């Protein structure tokens, strides 16, 4: 142990320790400056703004800045074709020379899509399906049907369209919906020979309205008075009237022959 302690006091030991320290420092300096050179520490540039430019304009700007680029495309119907709609990294981001900038371009050609099945769907449900298929809801019109706000027919460009047909993305789809009222015309009920209460029940079931009541002779028993005439009358030339039509009647206590 005493010999080791004596060795630590020698000039040779001190020289070896000093040499080792110098070697470590030199190696660290070499590694530090080599890394700075390799990464070009402190050197770089701000990414230029190319969003909103045409693809050709964006390429010129990036190449002038010494940057690479890669391109992807999407289709946004409300944007002009060939326009840069996104970039990564964002504008004014500090990057190294020769960095790759990723561009998203709005496709120049309108893609197609399959028309979804919306028949007999409610208007709200059909609109959600249309928009999720990247289509637009156009005009809505109504026709007589017992279903209210239910899709009876869809059309594109004035022509009926069925599920599965191929149409361009962004197309306007017009819908024909049920009005919930059924047919606009109903059969004229036969009221002659009925009492007032029976006539009211029949008219209500047909969505018609009791109009003017004309009394034929003295009415001594209104509950049993019989309808002898009605206007409009059910005849071969007239069998239907519009919903809500007023039906005029003539009441009499006289028995029909």
Characterise the protein shown here.
- By secondary structure, the protein is of the alpha+beta class.
- It has five helices and 16 strands.
- The chain has helices spanning 2-8, 11-39, 55-64, 123-132, 196-205, and strands at residues 45-46, 68-74, 84-88, 94-95, 100-106, 112-114, 136-143, 148-156, 159-160, 166-168, 172-179, 185-187, 209-216, 226-231, 240-242, 246-252.
- The strands form six sheets. The chain has a four-stranded mixed β-sheet. Strands 2-5-3 form a three-stranded mixed β-sheet, with helices on one face. It has a three-stranded mixed β-sheet with strand order 13-16-14, covered by helices on one side.
Shape: rod-shaped
Helices and strands, in order, run as: HHEHEEEEEHEEEEEEHEEEE
The level of helicity is 25-40%
Largest sheet: 4 strands, mixed
Counting helices, strands and paired strands, the structural category is alpha+beta
Q: Would you tell me the overall average pLDDT?
A: 84
Strand fraction: 25-35%
Total strands: 16
Distance, first to last CA = 149 Å
Uncertain segments are none
Instruction: Please give the radius of gyration in angstroms.
Output: 44 Å
With helices defined by DSSP (H or I, 4 residues minimum), what is the helix count? 5
Strand order of the largest sheet: 7-11-8-9
Transmembrane segments: 17-39
Domain PASTA: 41-107, 182-253
Keywords: Membrane, Transmembrane, Transmembrane helix
Protein name: PASTA domain-containing protein
């Amino acid at each position: 142990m005493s010999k080791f302690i004596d060795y630590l006091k020698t000039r040779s030991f001190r020289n070896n320790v000093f040499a080792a320290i110098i070697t470590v420092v030199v190696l660290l300096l070499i590694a530090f400056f080599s890394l700075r050179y390799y990464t070009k520490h402190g050197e770089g540039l701000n990414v230029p703004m190319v969003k909103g430019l045409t693809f050709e304009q964006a390429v010129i700007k990036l190449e002038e800045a010494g940057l690479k680029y890669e391109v992807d495309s999407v289709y946004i119907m409300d944007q002009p074709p060939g326009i840069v709609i996104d970039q990564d990294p964002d504008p004014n981001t500090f990057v190294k020379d020769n960095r790759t900038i990723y561009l998203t371009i709005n496709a120049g050609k309108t893609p197609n899509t399959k028309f979804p099945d919306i028949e007999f769907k409610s208007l709200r449900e059909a609109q959600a399906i249309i928009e999720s298929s990247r289509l637009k809801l156009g005009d809505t019109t109504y026709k007589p049907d017992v279903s209210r706000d239910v899709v009876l027919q869809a059309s594109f460009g004035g022509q009926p369209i069925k599920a599965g047909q191929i149409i361009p993305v962004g197309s306007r789809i017009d819908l024909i919906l049920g009005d919930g009222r059924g047919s606009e015309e109903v059969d004229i009920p036969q009221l002659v020979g009925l009492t007032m209460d029976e006539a009211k029940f029949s008219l209500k079931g047909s969505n018609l309205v009791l109009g003017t009541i004309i009394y034929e002779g003295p009415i001594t028993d209104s509950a049993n008075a019989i309808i002898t005439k009605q206007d409009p009358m059910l005849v071969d030339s007239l069998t239907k009237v519009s919903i809500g039509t007023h039906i005029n009647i003539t009441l009499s206590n006289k028995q029909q022959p």
